[in-house]
Amino acid sequence: MSTKVLIVDDVHEVLLEKLQDAGIAYDYQPDITRAEAEKQISEYSGIVIRSKFQVDSAFMDLAPGLSFIARSGAGMDNIDEAYAASRNITLINAPEGNRDAVGEHMTGMLLSLMNHLNRSHQQIKNRQWLREENRGYELKGRTVALIGYGNNGQAMAKKLSGFDVNVIAYDKYKTGFSDEYAREVSMEEVVKYADVLSFHIPLTRETKGMVDEEYLFHFRKPIFFLMGARGGIVDIPAVLRNLDSGRIIAAAFDVLPVEKFPSLGEQPWFADLMSRENVLVSPHVAGWTFESYYKLSAVVAEKVVTFLK
């Protein structure tokens, strides 16, 4: 089979240009459905996707000549990685493309929480001028704990370096990674010293539901909680209970276990979560800036070209 790539999601034109310059044939079908892709995928040796559908074993079985799956994004949770490995299908992603966007967004959410920016804005819209009630916290001198120190964790640490904070990081799968921006620590040190807890890990069988009541129980100090990784990692009712008890001062979510309406609005915890003034939620856009749109496509294109050449 000659090399031919099916692109099933919207991507920046730089990806198409780089494939074309490398002489790699492709079909760009950003409006294609999974059912339509299933009928065509046997003709291709590679697929580029973002989050349109699950690339599971059933889908891969329709593509005997598939040699790679590329995701124009960081996380790979919509791809059955184990099955792909069993088929010797190479997986490609682009965490370098949106790491700066995620770092900036989550830092912004933290600063908003610490200074009550969303709440005070709403109060002023309602003609309330409450200064003492909106006295904020300074980030300087606090300990920020990062769970995971890959591309996103490292970018977050670098963004925080100008705030005179103590950044510590725990990564179960890495050792010896201390650098000028963060110090490697054990999980015991994280729960003892953290003032801010920020997650930068993928969603896997091991991390699904990891942040539950038991996980949060061990923290010694009240924390600011940041979830910008994957929503399936966290049990939202456990966070709500810890907000009630004061163990979590405030929480920010760019991702949730269930996303998009109407399904999100049907969750039993949704109304409670959104009723709280010390909770900030954004619609899974931390890694989705105008700049990252270009960078994600450029990075994945370069990796695809390198793989095929």
Automatic annotation (TrEMBL):
Q: Which residues form the D-isomer specific 2-hydroxyacid dehydrogenase NAD-binding domain?
A: 108-286
Q: What Enzyme Commission number(s) apply to this enzyme?
A: 1.1.1.290
Q: By its UniProt entry, which InterPro entries does this protein fall under?
A: D-2-hydroxyacid_DH, D-isomer_2_OHA_DH_cat_dom, D-isomer_DH_CS, D-isomer_DH_NAD-bd, NAD(P)-bd_dom_sf
A GO term for molecular function:
NAD binding
Q: Where are the transmembrane segments?
A: none
**UniProt entry tagged with the keyword Cell membrane:** no
Report the Pfam families cross-referenced here: 2-Hacid_dh, 2-Hacid_dh_C
Domain D-isomer specific 2-hydroxyacid dehydrogenase catalytic, by residue range, is 5-309
The UniProt keywords, alphabetically, are:
NAD, Oxidoreductase
PANTHER family in the cross-refs: D-ISOMER SPECIFIC 2-HYDROXYACID DEHYDROGENASE FAMILY PROTEIN (AFU_ORTHOLOGUE AFUA_6G10090) (PTHR42789)
Homology family: Belongs to the D-isomer specific 2-hydroxyacid dehydrogenase family.
What's the protein here called?
4-phosphoerythronate dehydrogenase
From which source organism is this entry? Sphingobacterium spiritivorum ATCC 33861
Gene name, per UniProt, is pdxB
